[in-house]
Write a structure and sequence with these properties.
The chain is α/β, with parallel strands linked by helices. The chain has 8 helices and 6 strands, in the order ααααααβαββββαβ. About 45% of the residues lie in helices and about 20% in strands. Helix 1 runs antiparallel to helix 2 and helix 2 runs antiparallel to helix 3.
Amino acid sequence: MRIIRIVVILLMLLAVIFPQVASADETNTDTKTKIDFFKIIFPEKALAAEKSDYDFDKMLKDESKKGEVKSEEEIKKEAILAKWKEKQAERWKNLPKEPFEINASAYTASADECGNDKGITASGIKVKEKRTIACPPSFPFGAKLEIEGMGTYICEDRGGAIKGNHVDIYMKTKKEAFAFGRKNLEAEVIL
């Protein structure tokens, strides 16, 4: 599986980099293509790339040395969240800066809870255990929360009962969800 990921990433890199290698004349279009590529693959570094004369090739080498390989699903998820980030810019400004208390419960992707059993969240991303949470509408999709005793989760879903400080944590089985119950936990936004 890891080899497949590496091959997919290498093919993507070749598709983006090869046209620039073949052409000795690098234009603004080439730079824009690279920036668009980095928005998907390295979203945390894309802003720096847009604001300066960034050495994209060096950054690619540095990242490849880290051994960070993203799956096709991960790349797709990041692209979806990048679109939501643009649409929900105002919500990002209003996120809590300090730790806060949440009233956490758990849910599954079963048809009786979500209307279908496909596991597609309100953001358009497939649910994943130990990652997906349903947040109140005031939280933008893509916001990361460090939840006490649970780990880091990403706001990817909504729900009719998710209001105020209520957060719903996705779990794979109803048994796990019922065992979790409802808890008051401390959380912090960690962008």
